[in-house]
């Protein structure tokens, strides 16, 4: 039995990595963040041509028809390059929701357009991962009322919205009664916002349920963990490269044993996490019901490892690690953002404990 990536999966990672190195260097990321650019249209279009938007969408709907493991590999590369493009919601959570719960007509209307990048669809499911005071969406007679916070891939043409009962609904971004508010977060590479509903007409996904919501959330959490894996790997690579060229007391700091230990500890922490991400992605494709528990263990683990790596990599850089010149903070903040989205480590560990019957 082979425990590793296939040739096709390696080629997928290499193609995305090559594209982002060419088209999304740090200067492009910085321009997106500093100019409050709603969408990086050039990057979105280019990645759609590579098939990223339709990665999980079946070929019959114009997509590539790959599996969740492939989506995790793509997310790892996006995190490595801190790419300012929609992916978690538009390319993973929304297609998963439509394929699990959408009607034939809804799938025919939305999936081909998502696959080609003609439309972007965000996901408003954060309230299913821990309710916030004053937030929550109720559905009645085909209309939504309430508030949804921390909407992923916020600069979208439509949204998949979860109500308090576990129902999922499609809502157009220009629907009457819908107010969109962009939120400021530490991570400026991906827009996040708030949706306020005042009797907004919505198109319910007929097969939606609490179980479907849980599977959609598990997919989102898995790719966020993979994104953190990629971002943390970049910070390690940056720290090692900096240590090899920064001189102190007449020698490069990489020759000091203390610095060697810091870099070795980061690698020792992160490397086992890669297999964990691959396993969770594979399990989501092969046995999605059982994968819920795995993902509730995966994301908290990557959250903690990612935070530790981000802290240590910054320390290796010394004072330069805090400057905008190196841009290390973009990866640091991305890891911090992923930590809190779709369930904090504490929340997900409680979920895992409940699933195993360890707590009531």
Brief digest:
Helix content is 54%, strand content 14%. A hairpin with a 5-residue loop joins β4 (158-162) and β5 (168-172).
- Total count of strands: 10
| Head-to-tail CA distance between termini | 39 Å
Overall structural class, as computed from helix and strand content, comes to alpha+beta
Mean of all residue-level pLDDT scores: 92
Helix content: 40-55%
What string gives the helices and strands in order? Answer: HHHHHHEEEEEEEEHEEHHHH
In this structure, how is the largest beta sheet organized? 4 strands, mixed
List the defining traits of the structure above.
3 domains; alpha+beta; 4-stranded antiparallel beta sheet; 10 strands; 4-stranded mixed beta sheet; 360 residues; Butyryl-Coa Dehydrogenase, subunit A, domain 1; globular; Butyryl-CoA Dehydrogenase, subunit A, domain 2; 14% strand; Butyryl-CoA Dehydrogenase, subunit A, domain 3
Explained architecture:
This protein has 360 residues and is α+β, with helices and mostly antiparallel strands. The protein folds into three domains: 7-116, Orthogonal Bundle (Butyryl-Coa Dehydrogenase, subunit A, domain 1); 121-204, Beta Barrel (Butyryl-CoA Dehydrogenase, subunit A, domain 2), CATH 2.40.110.10; 210-355, Butyryl-CoA Dehydrogenase, subunit A, domain 3. 54% of the residues lie in helices and 14% in strands. It contains eleven helices and ten strands. It has helices at residues 7-23, 26-34, 41-49, 68-80, 88-101, 104-116, 210-245, 257-286, 288-316, 328-340, 345-355, and strands at residues 121-124, 136-140, 143-151, 158-162, 168-172, 178-183, 192-201, 203-204, 247-248, 251-252. β2 (136-140) and β3 (143-151) form a beta hairpin. α1 (7-23) packs parallel to α4 (68-80), α7 runs antiparallel to α8 (257-286) and α9 packs antiparallel against α10 (328-340). The chain is globular, with a radius of gyration of 20 Å.
């Amino acid at each position: 039995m082979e425990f590793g990536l296939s040739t096709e999966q390696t080629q997928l990672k290499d193609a995305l990595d090559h594209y982002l190195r060419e088209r999304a260097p740090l200067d492009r990321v910085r321009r997106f963040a500093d100019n409050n650019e709603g969408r990086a249209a050039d990057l979105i279009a280019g990645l759609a041509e590579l098939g990223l938007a339709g990665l999980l969408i079946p070929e019959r709907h114009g997509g590539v028809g790959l599996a969740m493991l492939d989506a995790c590999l793509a997310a790892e590369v996006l995190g490595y390059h801190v790419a300012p493009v929609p992916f978690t919601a538009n390319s993973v959570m929304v297609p998963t929701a439509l394929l699990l719960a959408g009607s034939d007509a809804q799938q025919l209307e939305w999936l081909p357009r998502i696959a080609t990048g003609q439309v972007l669809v965000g996901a408003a499911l954060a309230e299913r991962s821990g309710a916030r005071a004053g937030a929550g969406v109720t559905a009645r007679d085909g209309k939504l009322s309430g508030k949804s916070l921390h909407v992923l891939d916020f600069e979208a043409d439509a949204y998949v919205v979860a109500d308090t009962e576990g129902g999922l609904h499609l809502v157009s971004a220009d629907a009457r009664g819908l107010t969109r508010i962009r939120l400021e977060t530490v991570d400026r590479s991906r827009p996040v916002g708030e949706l306020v509903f005042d009797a907004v007409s919505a198109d319910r996904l007929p097969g939606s349920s609490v179980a479907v919501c849980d599977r959609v959330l598990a997919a989102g959490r898995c790719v966020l963990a993979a994104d953190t894996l990629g971002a943390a790997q970049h910070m390690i690579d940056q720290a090692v490269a900096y240590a090899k060229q920064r001189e102190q007391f007449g020698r490069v700091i990489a020759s000091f044993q203390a610095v060697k230990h810091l870099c070795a500890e980061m690698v020792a922490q992160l490397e086992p996490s890669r297999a964990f991400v691959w396993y969770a992605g594979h399990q989501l494709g092969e046995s999605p019901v059982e994968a819920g528990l795995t993902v509730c263990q995966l994301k908290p683990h990557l959250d903690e490892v990612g935070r530790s790596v981000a802290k240590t990599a910054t320390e290796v850089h010394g004072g330069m690690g805090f400057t905008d010149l190196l841009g290390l903070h973009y990866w640091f903040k991305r890891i911090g953002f992923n930590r809190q989205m779709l369930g904090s480590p504490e929340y997900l560990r409680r979920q895992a404990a409940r699933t195993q019957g360890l707590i009531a």
